[in-house]
Amino acid sequence: MPKAPKTNKSKKISKKIADRKKNPLFVKEAKNFRIGNDVQPKRDLSRYVRWPRYILLHRQKKILLQRIKVPAAIHQFSKTLDKNQSSKIYSLLKKYSPETKTEKKQRLIKAAEQKTQNQKPDTKKVNVLKFGLNHVTTLVETKKAKLVLIAYDVDPIELVVWLPQLCRRQEVPFAFVKNKARLGALVHQKTATCVALTEVRKEDQAEFDNLARDLRQHYNENHELLRTIGGGQVGIKSRHQQEALKKALELEELKKTSQ
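Predicted structure:
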């Protein structure tokens, strides 16, 4: 078979481009990104960053908890209060925040001055938040605690994993909140595993009763929390493999039915 003659289409196109009139206002200059020339464009280098070890461990732990099956007793800690509910609780508990070191110092100085002047010092009991794991545990066991908040990010989790069940048994309303640093801020500490409220003032009683009722429904009386197992989520690569296998099986079934 004789070969078809070659056409010089590419040459003709390049000639047309060359013949076009160039606008002197808009001169195209190719950028040179070599050393000492044009500035390199901004790129997303987050994949190449050497992250600190604690960040890596935090991310790896989060992925592990998504992949492996997590028992219900541990998985329930991820069911924290939503933003609206937590803001209501925190605004109430801020009123019962214990005194700071400076406030305590001022109070003791005032009491000492009253004593020197032969006056009776003000020894009225103040209702404040109780913190410390051992202290909160004794309050729950003796049924003195009216409300218990547990941080969801306590590490190791074994420190507080038994506390929700104790609250259920003693019929004390409890909740899981974000996070231990925020709980610590309420009681002037860096972090706090849990805090408890023992008494409420008369003006806050109605608001407290509504919150306690909601928490009982959401946590104490919610038996699904102790039944649902966490984790078991596969990664994106495994998901694609499963989808491809599913499609292949569907195609095979279609072929069998068509025959």
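Summary: The CA atoms of residues 133 and 159 lie 8 Å apart.
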